[in-house]
Design goal:
Elements lengths: L3 H20 L1 H30 L9 H7 L6 H8 L4 E2 L8 E6 L5 E7 L2 E8 L18
Antiparallel strand pairs: 1-2, 2-3, 3-4
Helix pairs in contact: 1-2, 2-4
Length: 144
């Protein structure tokens, strides 16, 4: 279960309740203004990322190898779109979990990312003439 979906609204209500108890309507107005500002900042960031991605071809990235090196487990799809400045090419059926997106570069190398509930779970790098490389966490440790 995603606790952010529950925790953030409850935290907002607690803040509003504390503001009401301490300062009355003036406190509620200040806290509500702060919450609206926070929502507008997130909305502006999302729109800016999507505007930059709209100018690039779907599923294209400058270097798949560099993308592979920058990826980390747990980052959101929006974060990966911000890194690549392009929407990924959807490889899985629409609206099913896990979601698979692919970014390809000019040398036909590509990174396929698996997202569950909007968070990156795993990814693989495939280069022409080479088998799929495992994620850095799955790579075997070097021999002694």
């Amino acid at each position: 279960m995603n606790f952010q979906k529950i925790f953030i609204p409850i935290a907002c209500l607690v803040l509003l309740g504390a503001a009401w108890r301490s300062y009355g309507w003036q406190g509620v107005a200040v806290v509500a203004g702060g919450l609206v500002m926070w929502l507008l900042l997130h909305y502006t960031r999302m729109i800016t990322i999507l505007k930059k991605a709209a100018d690039r071809p779907i599923g294209f990235v400058g270097s798949a190898v560099m993308l592979n090196a920058k990826l980390k487990k747990g980052v959101t799809l929006m974060h990966v779109i911000a890194m690549t400045r392009a929407l990924g090419s959807l490889q899985s059926p629409k609206d099913t979990q896990p979601e698979l997106f692919r970014w390809t570069d000019g040398t036909d190398s590509h990174v396929t990312c698996e997202f569950r509930n909007g968070k990156l779970v795993s990814w693989t790098l495939v280069r022409p003439g080479q088998e799929a490389a495992p994620t850095p966490d799955e790579a075997a440790p070097p021999a002694p």
